[in-house]
């Protein structure tokens, strides 16, 4: 009796000190209505997207996840720093959650900002299993706002994830309806001459590659907070307010170019971490990234949030309005971009993607940020040519974004940390990861090896690893490291921003550094659902840690790179 | 003897595929985080043909597969039902194992069983299928029959996108035999060619695409003589109407 009382008292104290919060989430079959179609899917607490989970920095959260499906499930807390057993990747962090079972996640919240959660089992995430996480910081934020909204985007497709994967394997261009046609050819040849047009076609045909290979999975309806363009998600405001919009791209496959015509946006956070404010007219959000922007609205009128897919095959639309029901003009989709020879990097001289050729290309150093030898196809550069080049795209790339109003388009190069989390120090070693694939077979890999044939990448606790991403494919890959921060090298030293997704454009080399401060086993993969499932995935093993002797960790840290 | 050779080829192919890198260590996530096996059912041709000599034919070319990136099992079906004789003029079933040999090319090996009206044949098959530069889809096979006769077929297809939904497909097929097999009307040398032009429209995604087109079939040399002897024609023009289906 006494003991119980004592336990209760201590228990009570404990709660006060740690500030625990408990959440219940059920994983359910749901109907998803996009306005264009209704599709059976998977959601949380009976809806897709699931609830917005609001945590507080410093608290200990307990989340009971009940699986009401007839298949295994899991929840991954995307971008959260937590013990690896809580990371939610079946086969790496834990076995997964069986049908009918409740799994209890428990971890401390050690960060603040905008994140999201999603299933890491099969294609449950594209099928609707995602939701938002908002973490309130312990201290004051370096910016003010009167109101906030989560703006969670996705690319809802009428086909299930399994079917999409199967169709892509049957025919990689199954969903591509932006391919170059005979009429495009005639238009092109009247513009630059028949021979030039023919030569161009022959060059691409010789390599069996497509200029229009930007969005693998077209035919989706873009959703904002679960609402299609016609259903028009609306966030209300009072004129004169500052509104914080927490953009989350929960798409399976789609990058979005986002603008709010008539409003300038101040980017204050990227992937949950505060950045030095940048005013932009438009920004591109990679799959699984988050950007927080603040808009200040003076007028009593409606504004459209317009999110065009990078390949312009679809869009999401929402509205900010003083009153429910008010709308603003919805812009037309801009013309679809086309890849150029610059996006091809090393393929120009090779024409196929075999491992041997990859090795050659490496020597050529054709990919990378200095593309002095590139840009043969200046005709195709479009608007990009007159703009200052974005160092995160190949020079002359067809993917270089421009703001629709001719103004400022956010670049990775603009992102600088507000408050560096880590001391800047020399990396202990560099690991090169070539992003590789075979588009025709729809096989994706790292260093030419698919996950199923690969050994894990072994890191030592306490080291700082510099990752060199060399994109040798023509697709853009949003690379996501679980459990540890990705410090994106924008050339700003200690002000380099912390991210959890690093987007690597075709034929570019991008560096990130990681302070290896989280022991255990972690997932690392391209966040395009069908690329990850096709092999662009690795397990990362962090050896050593606070529990083992540091000496061992440092010693091992001297060893070479990935075998 | 030849049957034995053919099945050994299949075995060899299968063995190569299964011996693929076994270096990777145990990792349960490789199962949970990877989409491994795939399947597909399609009919490239599902059509009715009407010839300039009032011949009517129903033609099916079907394909079903199951497997991984490294090894697929494929069932290929080809049938020509002749209205006048109420009989299968062609009835082929191929069961092959398929493995990648290059970024764009797969090798196939297996057996083909022909059971049309008239004598049956069983063949060993060794083939190559894939995508050639400039987007030509190629499929070519070497057949060795249970009678010891050898032949090679070659198929090429090019798809011209009029728009992203209106698609013109041009096909070429030919058969060359290295020895005569009179019983089934095969002469030595170039046997036949078939050239087709079909204009289709992708009506339901890529699952259902109706088309119309023309097909020209011609027999050559001894094969043509054999066809004439049995009262058949040596050259035909067909109007075709049909659909391409894919599940």
Automatic annotation (TrEMBL), chain A:
<dbReference type="InterPro" id="IPR006376">
    <property type="entry name" value="Cu-R_CopA"/>
</dbReference>
<dbReference type="Pfam" id="PF07731">
    <property type="entry name" value="Cu-oxidase_2"/>
</dbReference>
<dbReference type="InterPro" id="IPR034279">
    <property type="entry name" value="CuRO_3_CopA"/>
</dbReference>
<keyword id="KW-0732">Signal</keyword>
<dbReference type="Pfam" id="PF00394">
    <property type="entry name" value="Cu-oxidase"/>
</dbReference>
<dbReference type="InterPro" id="IPR034282">
    <property type="entry name" value="CuRO_2_CopA"/>
</dbReference>
<dbReference type="InterPro" id="IPR045087">
    <property type="entry name" value="Cu-oxidase_fam"/>
</dbReference>
<feature type="domain" description="Plastocyanin-like">
    <location>
        <begin position="220"/>
        <end position="312"/>
    </location>
</feature>
<feature type="domain" description="Plastocyanin-like">
    <location>
        <begin position="425"/>
        <end position="543"/>
    </location>
</feature>
<dbReference type="InterPro" id="IPR033138">
    <property type="entry name" value="Cu_oxidase_CS"/>
</dbReference>
<dbReference type="InterPro" id="IPR001117">
    <property type="entry name" value="Cu-oxidase_2nd"/>
</dbReference>
<keyword id="KW-0560">Oxidoreductase</keyword>
<feature type="signal peptide">
    <location>
        <begin position="1"/>
        <end position="20"/>
    </location>
</feature>
<keyword id="KW-0186">Copper</keyword>
<dbReference type="Pfam" id="PF07732">
    <property type="entry name" value="Cu-oxidase_3"/>
</dbReference>
<feature type="domain" description="Plastocyanin-like">
    <location>
        <begin position="33"/>
        <end position="138"/>
    </location>
</feature>
<keyword id="KW-0479">Metal-binding</keyword>
<dbReference type="InterPro" id="IPR011707">
    <property type="entry name" value="Cu-oxidase-like_N"/>
</dbReference>
<protein>
    <submittedName>
        <fullName>Copper resistance system multicopper oxidase</fullName>
    </submittedName>
</protein>
<dbReference type="InterPro" id="IPR002355">
    <property type="entry name" value="Cu_oxidase_Cu_BS"/>
</dbReference>
<dbReference type="InterPro" id="IPR008972">
    <property type="entry name" value="Cupredoxin"/>
</dbReference>
<dbReference type="InterPro" id="IPR011706">
    <property type="entry name" value="Cu-oxidase_C"/>
</dbReference>
UniProtKB/TrEMBL annotation, chain B:
<dbReference type="Pfam" id="PF05275">
    <property type="entry name" value="CopB"/>
</dbReference>
<keyword id="KW-0732">Signal</keyword>
<dbReference type="InterPro" id="IPR007939">
    <property type="entry name" value="Cu-R_B_prcur"/>
</dbReference>
<protein>
    <submittedName>
        <fullName>Copper resistance protein B</fullName>
    </submittedName>
</protein>
<feature type="signal peptide">
    <location>
        <begin position="1"/>
        <end position="24"/>
    </location>
</feature>
């Amino acid at each position: 009796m006494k003991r119980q009382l004592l336990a209760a008292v201590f228990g009570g104290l404990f709660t006060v000190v740690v500030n625990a919060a408990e959440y219940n989430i059920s994983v359910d079959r749901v109907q998803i209505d996009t306005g264009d179609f209704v599709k059976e899917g998977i959601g949380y607490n009976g809806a897709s997207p699931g609830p917005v989970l609001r945590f507080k920095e410093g608290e200990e959260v307990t989340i009971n996840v009940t699986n009401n499906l007839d298949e295994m499930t899991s929840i991954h807390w995307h971008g959260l720093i937590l013990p690896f057993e809580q990371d939610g990747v079946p086969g790496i962090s834990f076995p997964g959650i069986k049908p009918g079972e409740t799994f209890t996640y428990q971890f401390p919240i050690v960060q603040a900002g905008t994140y999201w959660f999603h299933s890491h089992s099969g294609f449950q995430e594209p099928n609707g299993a995602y939701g938002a996480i908002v973490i309130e910081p312990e201290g004051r934020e370096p910016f003010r706002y009167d109101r906030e909204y989560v703006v969670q985007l996705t690319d809802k497709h009428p086909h299930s994830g399994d079917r999409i994967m199967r169709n892509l394997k049957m025919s990689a261009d199954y969903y591509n309806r932006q391919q170059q046609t005979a009429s495009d050819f005639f238009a092109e040849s009247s513009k630059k001459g028949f021979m030039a047009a023919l030569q161009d076609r022959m060059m691409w045909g010789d390599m069996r590659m497509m200029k229009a290979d930007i969005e693998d999975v077209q035919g989706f309806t873009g959703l904002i907070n679960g609402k299609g363009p016609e259903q028009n998600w609306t966030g209300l405001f009072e004129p004169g307010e500052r509104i914080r919009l927490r953009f989350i791209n929960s798409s399976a496959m789609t990058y979005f170019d986002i603008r709010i015509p008539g409003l300038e946006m101040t980017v204050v956070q990227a992937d949950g971490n505060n950045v030095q404010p940048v005013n932009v007219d438009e920004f591109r959000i990679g799959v699984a990234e988050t950007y927080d922007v603040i808009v200040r609205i003076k007028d009593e009128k409606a504004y459209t949030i317009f999110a065009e897919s990078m390949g312009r095959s679809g869009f999401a639309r929402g509205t900010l309005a003083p009153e429910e029901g008010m709308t603003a003009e919805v812009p037309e989709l801009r013309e679809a971009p086309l890849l150029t020879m610059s996006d091809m990097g090393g393929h120009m001289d090779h024409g196929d993607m075999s491992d041997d050729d990859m090795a050659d290309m490496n020597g050529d150093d054709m990919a990378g940020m200095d593309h002095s030898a590139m840009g043969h196809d200046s005709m195709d550069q479009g608007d990009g040519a007159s703009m200052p080049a974005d160092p995160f795209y190949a020079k002359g790339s067809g993917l270089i974004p421009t703001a629709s109003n001719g103004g400022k388009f956010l670049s990775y190069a603009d992102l600088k940390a507000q408050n560096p989390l880590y001391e800047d120090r020399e990396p202990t070693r560099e690991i090169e990861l070539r992003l590789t694939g075979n588009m025709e077979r729809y096989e994706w890999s790292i260093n030419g090896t698919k996950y199923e044939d690969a050994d894990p990448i072994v890191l030592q606790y306490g080291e700082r690893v510099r990752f060199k991403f060399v994109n040798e494919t023509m697709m853009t890959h949003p690379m996501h490291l679980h459990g540890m921060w990705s410090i994106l090298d924008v050339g700003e030293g200690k002000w380099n921003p912390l991210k959890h997704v690093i987007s690597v454009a075709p034929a570019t080399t991008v560096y990130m550094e990681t302070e290896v401060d989280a022991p255990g086993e972690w997932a690392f993969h391209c966040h395009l659902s069908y690329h990850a499932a096709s092999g662009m995935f690795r397990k990362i093993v962090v050896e050593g840690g606070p529990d083992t002797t540091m000496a061992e960790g440092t010693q091992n840290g001297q060893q070479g790179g990935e075998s | 003897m030849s049957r034995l050779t053919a099945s050994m080829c299949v075995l060899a192919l299968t063995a190569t595929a299964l011996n693929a890198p076994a270096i990777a260590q145990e990792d349960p996530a490789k199962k949970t985080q990877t989409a491994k096996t795939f399947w597909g059912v399609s009919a490239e041709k599902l059509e009715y043909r009407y010839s300039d000599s009032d011949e009517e034919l129903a033609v099916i070319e079907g394909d079903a597969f199951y497997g991984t990136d490294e090894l697929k099992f494929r069932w290929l079906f080809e049938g020509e039902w002749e209205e006048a004789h109420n009989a299968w003029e062609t009835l082929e079933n191929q069961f092959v194992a398929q493995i990648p040999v290059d970024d764009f090319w797969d090798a196939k090996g297996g057996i083909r069983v022909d059971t049309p009206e008239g004598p049956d044949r069983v063949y060993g098959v060794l083939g190559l299928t894939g995508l050639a530069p400039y987007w030509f889809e190629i499929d070519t096979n070497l057949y060795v029959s249970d009678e010891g006769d050898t032949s090679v077929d070659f198929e090429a297809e090019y798809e011209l996108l009029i728009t992203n939904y209106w698609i013109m497909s041009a096909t070429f097929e030919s058969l060359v035999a290295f020895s005569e097999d009179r019983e089934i009307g095969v002469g030595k040398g170039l046997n036949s060619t078939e050239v087709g032009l079909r204009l289709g429209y992708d009506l339901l995604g890529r699952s259902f695409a109706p088309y119309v087109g023309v097909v020209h079939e011609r027999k050559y040399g001894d094969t043509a003589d054999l066809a004439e002897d049995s009262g058949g024609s040596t050259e035909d023009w067909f109007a075709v109407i049909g659909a391409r289906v894919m599940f």
